[in-house]
Amino acid sequence: MPVRAVWRPNEWVWPLLGIATVLLAAGAYPQRLQGHWLVLTPLAIAAGVFAVRRLWSMHPAPTMCAAIVLSVFSGAWREVGLGGLPLDRLLILVVVLQFLLRAPGVASAPRLRLRNVHLLLGLTVLYALGSAVAAGTLMSESGFLSFADQLGVVPFLMFIVAPSVFAGQRERNMLLATLVGLGAYLGLTAIFESLGPHFLVFPRYILNVNTTLAEEARAGGPFRAVVAEGFATYACAVAAVMAFVQWRGQRRRFLAAAVAISLLGCILTLERGVWIGAIAASLIAASLTQAGRRRLVPTALAFVLAGSVALALSPTLAHELSNRTGDQKTVWDRENQISAGLRMLAAKPLFGFGWDRYTQDDLDYFRQPADHPMFGYSHANYESVGQLLPLHETYLSYAVELGLFGAVLWAASLLWGLGGTILARGPTELVPWRAGLLAITVCFLVIALFNPYQSAFPVLLLWVWAGVAVGASPLPSRAHARHDARVGA
């Protein structure tokens, strides 16, 4: 029997919750209660309340795994057909409320434990919040979502919650299986998206929405972003390697195939920053273990051979790969953006221009270079009105928008939260998770040198993984508690 007391809502709470949700929907989205939606919306809300009622009594690990999977569709719920309903964020909210309100599902989970690093993360969030308020960007859609998902408000919360959610081996194996399956889906989707057959791509919006990638056979996957797709497929490949080492039986063949498929999806992004990050992460992580050093050369040769065969069998892939590696325009984009970013940093070095202000203030800081065209401001050219490009250098982005003070806070949060977890001593069963965290952290940090803020999934997975690697002591049973009390007496 668990030691912790739990709160079980009265039966009338759930119908009341459904009625309140219908009233809120009527006020915020009146069109959702007109025509055929007059019947469908209340039915959908009733089904959602019933699902929350069931989740309330369940262990939070399955809910958290589902939230991680669904976060790959973050920002695309309208294209999926759910009218913008953020299922991933709702599941994360359920997990957080389970701990805050002592749901029956967390009765056997360890209590949340706040450490000094969490105070630093909180200080970083508060500083960025003040910056967004001062800059007037907090209430804008891009400003609020980037603050919540990309800076790390939601991921930082998951860093606190994950040690308790995935405290047991069973729960950690559940997360591994989730990431292996997700990697297989992302890898296959990348193959179908880039090389065909296109009718196998699901959901269809992946083909219809990725207009910015239409000129090249680049894989953006459900993220609609090649950088997020590249990090996600690499992280899932790391999880598959961990599962291959730990698990036994026929599953190992599937795991080996999952590793290859995930890494091929990473290659098909045709993003050089992703390639460099994946190679650097693999070399560093493998060189730190005896088994990794022994298998490094054979594994590298196997993947080089597999890549050569793929290029030989697919002239389209070979052509796109050649075009991408020789693309000079993206180099000019980054050179011009970095020059503009450095001028902005020199103009406001301490506190920056404010959160999410780069694309609104950067035009005045672009200058025409003497040796190449002016690219990097938008998808067209310097003077055109089009989709504005973010600064393709994450570290400089934080310095420009939050100033050096905010950038140091953010960097210290990464160094303490992720680096401290990697170097920490803990149970032997968490050693593979710390090794995997090292690999995906290096990949993330290298990608950040060449690209802007990543989407919700990479940051969320990074901090959830870190929370798993921290670990937590299981909650003792009542019998153990009584025995300890007698011993102490």
Notes on the protein architecture:
By secondary structure, the chain is mostly helical. It has 2 domains: 13-105, no CATH class; 127-328 and 391-470, no CATH class. It has helices spanning 13-28, 37-56, 60-70, 77-80, 87-100, 116-135, 141-151, 153-165, 169-195, 205-209, 226-246, 251-267, 272-287, 290-313, 315-325, 329-347, 358-361, 394-423, 431-450, 456-470, 478-488. It starts with 12 loop residues before the first helix and ends with a helix. Residues 210-215 and 476-489 have low confidence and may be disordered.
Q: How does the helix and strand content classify structurally?
A: mainly alpha
Q: Give a count of the beta strands, DSSP E runs of length 2 or more.
A: 0
Sheet with the most strands? Answer: none
Average pLDDT, rounded to a whole number, is 83
Discrete helix count = 21
Q: DSSP strand (E) fraction? A: under 5%
Task: Please report the distance between the alpha carbons of the first and last residues.
Answer: 22 Å
Helix and strand sequence: HHHHHHHHHHHHHHHHHHHHH
Shape: globular
| Tally of distinct domains | 2
Spans of 5+ residues with little confidence (pLDDT < 50)? 210-215, 476-489
Helix content: 55-70%
Radius of gyration: 24 Å
